Amino acid sequence: MGTTTSESRHREELTPQASAPEVPTSFDDLGIPKVVLENLLIKQLAAFPKSDILQLTKLLGVNSHLIEDLIAILRKKSLVEVFQAASETFLSQNTSGHVRYALSEQGMQEADIAFAKDAYLGPAPVSLRDYQQMVGAQDVRAQTVTKQDVTYALSDVYGAERMIGVLGPAINSGRALLLYGDAGTGKTFVATRILNSLNTSVYVPYAVYAAGNIIKVFSPQHHRKVNTGDESISITFKDQHDRRWVLCERPSIQVGGELTMDMLEVNHTEHNRVWMAPLQMMANNGIFIIDDLGRQPMPVDTLLNRWIVPMEYFYDYLSLPNGQQITIPFILTLAFSSNLDPQKIADPAFLRRLGYKIQFYALKENEYHALWEKIAQGRGLSIELDTFDKLFGLHRQHTVGYYPCLPKDIVGISRDIIAFEEVEPVITPEILARAWEVYFTADGKGGGER
Asked: What residue spans carry the region label Disordered (predicted)?
């Protein structure tokens, strides 16, 4: 439905739950092997030739004097060449930009070898130990959610007052949720709003180094940066946090029928050989929504069994490309959503492990009426009074519940009809009937069962 004013205001009010990671001032503080940094710097110079110290500092997220030490090591190995500006102005003499570095011919060969081993290109990774500690410090259960918080989070959800008393304790528990009910009752929409009850932001690493592998964690598709108003990068990073971490809103990751078991393991694509973190690792300190449970290509039992250990012990085992196995935190809210009968998709033993099972229902008539008016107004349309008589009559005729997904969809079709026929921006009974017929199948129910 887009970003609302309340959502924008919510992001501005977010404060980090954990203390900012301090800037490492030594290679020991970084917690990763120096050779990993050397290879990463070589790849950066291959991708960005003739970079200066400031640029390399920004690219690797590592303090400038550590970059200088790495450059010195690579120069001794004849892998890096120095380029000095032909003429120095007063401005260039007072900046570090006039000294630039590039790979030698031997350095380019080393870069090819480095890319073949590991195609990751970005800020230096953090250690698995540092990642585990940060995820633990940002545990959602460490901060109690109040009734007022959940009320605010669901302020744009019609009929929310019937769910607040259940969702609040569910969030605080940190246990997995099962949201079930007819299609279109707003299960996924509500699940995505859960994190709005939390007024804290979290630090997410660009990548994690574990057992000889760099695993990319930060994803612009799944993580939203929080604008702190401090985007300046100095050479020394003085008074700044470790730039290998990104301050983000709590992750909210949603996947549906396209989910495969490969997406839950460290993997890469054929065209991009960077090892990507699995979805549950990207969702740490946030929420992971598995929508349309029961419609994935693998058997439900196989999918559900994948979560037994993580749900019980709050950690997960991952197999790495080199055959080793690591343990990562599983500190997130796992939410399953389904329009199928829970008793038919999971055995009693698994349902018992799901701390909260929340059923969703259709809206009441007055709530449904108000939602129609709100959505129509948002689309620049008005609704004739007789149109509501027609609307409720169609619902009774076809025994369709007052599902919150319907107003947005049918108003959208009505607007398309109005725009095409160049008539007044008013939803009349006749336009509504046409939109209903297009939206639903012949039995009058197909559209609502998506």
From this structure: 1-25
Q: Are 141 and 174 in contact (CB under 8 A)?
A: yes
Single-letter amino acid code for the residue at 341: D
Residues with Cβ within 8 Å of residue 213, at least 6 apart in sequence: 118, 266, 275, 320, 321, 322
Q: Say how far apart CA 338 and CA 297 lie, in whole Å.
A: 15
**H or E element in which residue 181 lies:** strand 177-181
In a domain, 24, yes or no: no
Q: Are 188 and 335 in contact (CB under 8 A)?
A: no
pLDDT in tens, 36-73: 999 999 999 999 999 999 999 999 999 999 999 999 99
Contact 100, 1 (CB under 8 A): no
Q: How far is CA 63 from CA 54, 209, 222, in A?
A: 10, 18, 27
Q: What single string gives the DSSP state of each residue in 131-167? A: HHHHHHHT-GGGSPPPHHHHHHHTTTSTTGGGTHHHH
Domain range for 155: 5-16+128-360
Per the listing, tokens 């102005």 go with: 89
SS3 assignment, position 356: strand
Q: Are residues 39 and 58 in the same domain?
A: yes
